[in-house]
Amino acid sequence: MQRKLLAIIVVVIIVVAAVAAIELTPKTPSTPSADARNIVIGLVAPLSTSIGQDMSDAAQLAAKEINDAGGIYVKDWNTNVNVSIVNVNTIDDAPSNAKTPVVQAVESEHVDMLIGGYGSAGTLANEVVAIDDKVPYIITGASNQLVTRRGPQGNYGGFGVNGANSITDSEGVSYIFHYCTTTYHYSKTVVDFFATVMKPMVAPDRNFSLAILYRNDAFGQGVDQATKYWIQNESLPITLTERNYDPTTAKTSGYQTDLTAVAASHPDAVFIVDNPDQTPLIIKQGWNEVGLKSVYIAVENNQDPTFYNLLGSTGDGQLLESKMDPFMTPSYSQVVQTYVENFNKTYPHVMPGMMGADTYDAFYIAKDAITRAGTVNKTEVRDAIENTNMNQMLIQTKTGKIQFSTGINYHEIDPVTFIEQLKWDSTNSHLTSQIVWSPSGSTNLKQANFTLPTGYQPAQ
Amino acid sequence: MQTKQAITAFLHSKGFQLLLVTFAVLAVLPIFITDSFFLYILTLIFVFAIYAASWNFLANSGQGSLGHALFLGIGGFSSAIVGGRITTALIGAMGVTRMPIGALSVLIQVLVLLVGGLVSAGIGLLIGLACVRLKTWYLAMVTFGFSVIASTLSSQFDSFTNGINGFAPATFVPGGYPFYILVIAFAAASVAAMYLIMKSRMGLAFRAIHGNEAEAKMIGINTAKYKLIAFVISTFFAGIAGGLYAFFTRFIDNSIFSPANSFLPLIMSVIGGLGTVAGPVIGAIFFISIQQIFALPSVVNYLQTSLGSVFPGVNNVGPPISYLIIGVILLLIVIFTPKGLIALFRRFYSYITAKPQPKEIKTK
Amino acid sequence: MDITAPTIILTLVWGVAIGCIYILLATGLNIIFGVMKLVNFAHGQLLMIGAFLTWSISVSLGLNAYAAIVVSMVVVAALGVAVERLTFRRVLGTDKLNEIFVSLGLIYIFENAAMLLWGTGSKQITSPFYGSSLSLPGISITYDRIVAVFVVIAALVAFGLLLKKTKIGLAMQATSQVSSAAMLMGINVEKIYMFTFALGAALAALAGGLYGVIFSFDFQVGAMPTIIAFAIIILGGLGSIKGAIVGGLLYGIAEQLATLFLGGIWGSAVAFALLIVVLIIKPTGLFGQKGE
Fold first, then answer.
1. Is C2 on the interface with A (CB under 8 A)?
2. Do the chains contact at A218 and B166, CB–CB below 8 Å?
């Protein structure tokens, strides 16, 4: 009886030991998993616009670079796989056009991740799909801060749980990442520049008079609210005159009357909030037709070839808020210069813009996150993006690292934004730019002093 | 009495049976095709089928509208706003964080959609009163003008409508199959109701006005009254469609008033066959399907790779070539079947049901 | 903001200047409607193609922008002939709304062909007068705006003479009254249709050239101008040339004054409200004849 028991114990020990030995032997399976497949990224971009085309070009470039360098290693599959892009064409980013293609990408193409999103209105509409289906979405364009702050973690963007755009699903909203500047970032840079640099020059002993002329949509309203917020919050000596227009009407019949009204408020500078296909016309109509010889400032989405080409010589002396400038030679940044060279090798007919640069970086963020996650499981990829700690790429950040605010926070980066002044190069007939101001506390990128444009007429 | 007879006749009619079978098949279709995007598109199609049918109904009474997006938008905004208010009140009273989904929420959804339809019909009544003297293009342009004004008002009173940023209406019926069934039910009911009205005495008056308004007046039809009634009924159903659209896409903003949305029901009605019951439904199915087929990544990529080198200036030629092909298809349809696709189906139907005829007669 | 007299005068000038371009577009649309009884909702896309062609010709050949407009008018007129023969003629006399459907197909084709040929970016035509303007006390107006107004006046006068003094113009008028009677009188109605469409298209191209000098444009620019031009001829009365001129000026001025006093979002709303009020009072427009 005892013998029998002993024998059983011995056998059990041997079996357990054998199983443990097999389990503990380091596995070196030489064959990749049968599940291995390409990683599918949905590129959300309005392909009927030049910015959408730029985003698509940059995305294709990034994917090609990543694949040429061996693709992405996925530990679960024990192999390197390529990235493939599904174009999620939001046409013109009107909310009615922006949602269905994202549903298709998520439900039918089963994308692993979404990257892109340009217009704020369209993105607020289509990110709901990613939130509902829990698909990581790195947003590289839409700057309205509600995009990431509409959930509990963003305190519902300040509108409360019953706010029109509030979403109670905090887990769902945690799949949304903002890899770009928000209206609050760049509006602060703009008003700080006027208060610290331009006010002493033109209005040393009175309030600086700033006019803001914005398109009446989610983008324009976001910038207007943020501008008001910073002037009030920092008690800046700036008097703001606000004026807005209907984008469709004004695109058809021009901006001359709105500018005439702006001129009647005698501003020291004019803040124009529109897209690169319209902003140059607004500045030209203001300067040439209405005779409002002021300082005009545009925001960073205008860092696009369309803006430079259309604005032409009227742009001499005017301002552009930016976070990445591909048009400078020599560039302020070696990384940017390399990007422009590679871009031009692939697309000899086109110049890159800034929106594409965000998108390009986002593909590397995706690669980094999937590699660290070791899987394409969306929750784990989301966690990995949340813990991103890469060196900055085309977009410079305050810490020099790409980090998303984590924990209970919404996911935003902290980019360095700066003010550029445009110069007309009459020998080569094109506009160039120089950085004239960057906020304190970040790398000083300043290249030249700001000077008033030739012909600037002070406000009476 | 007569209405009762009409309803009885309708219930026994071939058209009704066909309708019943069609919608029954559609309701169970997603069980066999489980792709959730397919379901999404199918739902979208039937929301627009209601919208197109409402436009077609108006056209049947001899009136044309180029601003029907106004009613789509009013229905959408009012049902979404009322729905939001009800949710806030209910979850406050019940002490929960979100609306529990159940029989109550489905009931609320239906009521809220009806509210959207009624508000739209109310505005429709006012606009109809102003427009009653107007004809053809003049009426079309005035309705368009009202849609422009509505969009501006919605911007102006943004704190009330939230139309600039847009917003997601509350969820009462979950998306996917449940919402699809809701839409199918509304589509069947709406199409049946409009069919019934057209078959009734009132419908007779509408058609008389459509045929010749002056003659209709001469035989004693109060044309102004009937035109107004048609306007109100049409705007009611357009409002229902708007509500369904807002709750289905879970987003509504001022772009719902866009000219594109005003042209859509016209296109669908013409493509399917003006003045028929099935026309707008067929038109909606065809138009949305063709748009979606040409937006399929595989189709776009194929066009991109095969024709990309022809246009060196644009890197992404897939989408524009897709749309170009849609344009050509639309032209071919209207040139070869000017009476709409339904005429093609009818010809096909009579062809296959026709008795074979002796050869001698045929050659004559 | 203090609204002074010069501000209001300047706003009126903007209204007239914008109205003029719409009048040109509306006149083309109107003559096509008058003669062929069809509404071409792709008319604004001809404006868009006219603008792009002017841009291409002036850039690639280094031609003066205003000379380039003439070349583009000829090309677009030829395109108009092709469009009329291949599409609209085939649906004439079928269901009433089929022409809108044809227009929609054409919009898809024109816009996307333009995107393939000229890309998605916005363009603006550089005029020889770029940056220079006429200074008057209190206000200054660019020469391009002044040229546009005079070109429109000249085009309308020439158009009026063509209708009243030439054989083909008289034939067009006859066709617009009763096409079957015109046919009996020995007028080749099909030829008249073709000529009318070419003329309308050329006027759209002219409007496009002037538009592209003053504004920037992309392949989607045509949609709104079509609707505005259509609103203008409805406001003035379908088929009436005088109506289109008055309607265009009223529309432009109402839109710009509303923008000044009420803000940019009110521009088209007020212009359309004016249209609605006029039509409620006079259901056939300002100069329209009774019974269409």
1. yes
2. yes
Q: Do the strands A113-116 and A39-45 form a parallel or antiparallel pair, or are they unpaired? A: parallel
What lies within 8 Å, CB to CB, of C287 at 6+ separation is: C236, C237, C240, C242, C243, C246
In a domain, B328, yes or no: no
d(CA B7, nearest CA chain A) in Å:
38
Does the CB of A171 have a partner CB in chain B at under 8 Å?
no
CB contact under 8 A, B326 and C108: yes
Domains and CATH numbers, chain A: 39-181+336-412 (3.40.50.2300), 184-322+417-437 (3.40.50.2300)
Number of domains in chain B: 1
**What backbone phi and psi angles, to 5 degrees, belong to A228?**
-60, -45
B338 contacts on C by Cβ (under 8 Å): 91, 94-95, 98
Locate the chain C residue with the closest alpha carbon to A281. C216
Interface of C with B in 204-223 (CB under 8 A): 223
Q: Which fold has domain C11-125+137-281?
A: ABC transporter involved in vitamin B12 uptake, BtuC (1.10.3470)
Q: pLDDT tens for residues A32-79?
A: 788 889 999 999 999 888 899 999 999 999 999 999 999 999 999 999
Question: Which of B245, B247, B251, B300 is the best mutation test for A, with the most CBs of A within 10 A?
Answer: B251
Q: By the 8 A CB rule, do A122 and A55 touch? A: no
Q: Is residue B300 part of a domain?
A: no
- pLDDT, tens digit, for every residue of B228-286? 999 999 999 999 999 999 999 989 999 999 998 998 898 888 888 887 888 898 899 98
The residue range of the domain holding B47 is 2-265
Q: Which of B87, B98, B156, B165 to mutate to test the interface with A (most CBs of A within 10 A)?
A: B165
User: Which residues does chain B have within 8 Å of residue C265's beta carbon, measured at their own beta carbons?
Assistant: 152, 155-156
Cβ of A94 and B255 within 8 Å?
yes
Task: Please indicate, yes or no, if residue B151 is contained in any of the structural domains.
Answer: yes
A vs B, Cβ pairs < 8 A, gives 105
* Shortest Cα–Cα distance, A252 to chain B (Å): 14
CB contact under 8 A, B144 and C266: no
C285 to chain A, closest Cα gap in Å: 23
ipTM: 0.91
Interface residue of A91, A221, A243, A257 to substitute, partner C, most C CBs within 10 Å? A257
Residues in A touching B166 (Cβ below 8 Å): 95, 121, 124-125, 165, 218
The nearest CA of chain A is from the CA of C89 a distance in Å of 30
Tens digit of each residue's pLDDT (9 = 90 or more) over A395-440: 999 888 999 986 557 899 989 999 999 999 999 888 999 999 998 7
Domain boundaries, given as residue ranges, for chain C? 11-125+137-281
